[in-house]
C-alpha cells in the first residue's frame, strides 16, 4: 500500500533503478571518489584525516573510506541516504559547504559499486545503514528502502526505543542481504574507526569494465588507485580530439592517478 501524508495524500517514492541512472552523472570514477572525500571535508563533518583502502571480505573486493569527523546520528544518516535532504548551511565564506543538494553520497557510492554499508558513530550512538541495489533487486522493491540500525556506543546493545521493531527488521535485512553476516562483524567495523567519532563507508560489487576487470586498477601500485591502460588510451584520444592535449604531450598524472 502506498504511504500517505497526514492529510491522506499519496507520497512520492523513488524507484530503485534511479540509484544506477543517478550515478551516471560521474563519467570519471575519480570524480565519484571526490564526492565521498568532499562529504568528509565539509564543515558539518570536519574530518581531519581520511583513509582510503581496498580490502577483501568474503572473497569480494571492497573499497573503504574512513574518516575521523563528527559522525552522524541515525536521523542524519537517514537523511544522507535519502534524496533531496541536506543540513548543510551557507556557513562562513572560508567554510562553505561543498555539496548543498543531498545527492553526492548516493551518486558517488553507486558509481563505484552496486552496494554500500555506512558505519558511523558520534560519541553516544553508533549506526549502520545499507544502500544497496542488490538488496532492492532481491526483494523486488518498488521504492528505495534503506535499512538503518542504531546501537548504544557504550554497551554495543541495539537501541531500545519506540521504533525498535524497525531496527530489528533492518538488522535482519543487513545481515541477510549484505556482505556482513553477523552482529559481531558490524561491531568490528565500528571498532575499526580510529576515534570515538567518525564514519566508515564500505562499497562492494565494484564496477567492472567490459573485460571483467575492475574499473579502477588497485594492483599496479600498492599506494595508489589508478586507471587501467585501456582507459588511458581512450582518454588520450579524447583529449587530443578536443585539442586539450598536443600529440607530443603525455597525459598529466591527475587524469589516471588518484594519489
UniProtKB/TrEMBL annotation:
Source species, domain of life: Eukaryota
InterPro entries: HATPase_C_sf (IPR036890), MORC_ATPase (IPR045261)
CDD domains assigned to the protein according to its UniProt record, in alphabetical order: HATPase_MORC-like (cd16931)
Annotated Pfam families: HATPase_c_3 (PF13589)
Name used for this protein in its record: Morc S5 domain-containing protein
